[in-house]
Amino acid sequence: MGKNKQSWLVTPGAAALALGIAAFAAAPAWASSALPTNLYAFVVPNDTGASQTSLSLVLSGDQTNSLPGSGSTTGVENSLGGAYGVSTPAGSTNGPTTVTFSSATASSLAANGAATVGFQWSNPFSPPAIDSAAWGGGSAIDFVSMSDQSQLAAAAVTADPYMIDVLDVSHAGLGANVVTQYQEQQYTGNPPSITFTNNTSVSEILSSAEYYISPTEIPLSDLNATDYPPSDSVFTPLPSSYDTTLSAGGSETFVTPTPEPATFGIAALGIVGLAGLARRKRCARWPVR
User: Fold this and answer.
1) How far apart, in whole angstroms, are the C-alpha atoms of residue 250 and residue 67?
2) Which residues have a Cβ under 8 Å from the Cβ of 61 and sit 6 or more positions away?
3) Widest Cα–Cα separation across the chain
4) Sign of the CA dihedral 40, 136, 109, 170?
5) What count of Cα atoms within 13 Å lies in the side-chain half-sphere of residue 217?
6) % of residues, the chain, pLDDT over 70
7) Rounded Cα–Cα distance for residues 48 and 53 (Å)
8) pLDDT tens readout for residues 158-203
9) Which of 156, 148, 253, 138 shows the shortest CA–CA distance to 192?
10) Is residue 97 over pLDDT 90?
């Protein structure tokens, strides 16, 4: 009787262990609360000449496990004020994934205004690859993607500080801004290695590319031209990228050595003027909404 009782007690434990192993195997490798999440934000100008009620970003692959779920209000930034949605083609396991930000009213974003949208990204091993963007009316949004994989190798790091990359792009020969992007990830000490890819059909100019080491995490809602960067922050520019022209479909990677902490003050004296100018240009570019 005792032997049978012991066998009965062991069996549920073994079954639970087996279920746990199966669940772990089925979950994505990054599906763990111990791993950090990255933040991505985009300031998108409305240069269509008409009011817009939504915009969409199209990502390569099926990224539904890396993004907040449809309807989520946590881990999402949407200055348009409406719904957030994530979708993939019916029956597809390879994507692409469309992320849609809608407005709360029929004319939420006026012509010549700018929308700020963003999301939390829970796959610290691979950044999102954004292939295209468009307004709800069908007008394409010129987009140069920014991907910094320099901090991905040490995904187990969960403490401060954070690295924020910022990119401003303008049309070659036109001077019009395309999309200002922010990428925030936990800083590992590795120098940034940022790849820019021109997803448009015309040449684009990297008018400003820089990064900032923050002692604390900057909230997603503050990654925009109005609230960020802080007035006392000092950005480190990627000098070799300034005014670089990317041809249609072109891609280029820039690596900048990261100063040691002891040299931050000295480096700041040399770059504060340039960084401050870029910051003022970015903050003045869009009307405060």
Assistant:
1) 27
2) 94, 95, 96, 97, 129
3) 88
4) positive
5) 14
6) 68
7) 12
8) 566 888 888 887 766 554 567 889 999 888 888 888 888 888 888 8
9) 148
10) yes
pLDDT of residue 234: 73
Q: If you compute the radius of gyration of the chain from its CA atoms, what whole number of angstroms results?
A: 22
Residue found by looking up tokens 């021109």 in the block:
198
What are the tokens at 236?
């480190």
Tokens read off for 3: 């032997």
Cβ–Cβ under 8 Å, residues 211 and 164:
yes
Q: SS3 breakdown of the chain: % helix, strand, coil, rounded to 5?
A: 20, 35, 45
Cα separation, 124 vs 186, whole angstroms? 10
Which positions ≥6 away from 200 have C-beta within 8 Å?
A: 142, 143, 144, 178, 248
Question: Beta strands of the chain (E only): which ranges?
Answer: 38-45, 54-59, 76-78, 81-87, 97-103, 114-121, 130-135, 144-148, 162-171, 180-186, 193-198, 204-214, 236-237, 244-246, 251-255
Per-chain mean pLDDT for the chain: 75
Omega within 30 of 0 (cis) for the link into 96: yes
For residue 273, give the DSSP letter.
H
H-type alpha helices, the chain:
2-26, 264-285
Q: How many residues can be counted in the chain?
A: 289
Q: What are phi and psi of 64, to 5 degrees?
A: -65, -25
Burial of 265 (0-12, 13-18, 19+ CB in 10 A): exposed
Residue with token string 């403490």: 159
> CB–CB of 124/55 below 8 Å?
no
Give the β-pairing of 97-103 and 54-59: antiparallel
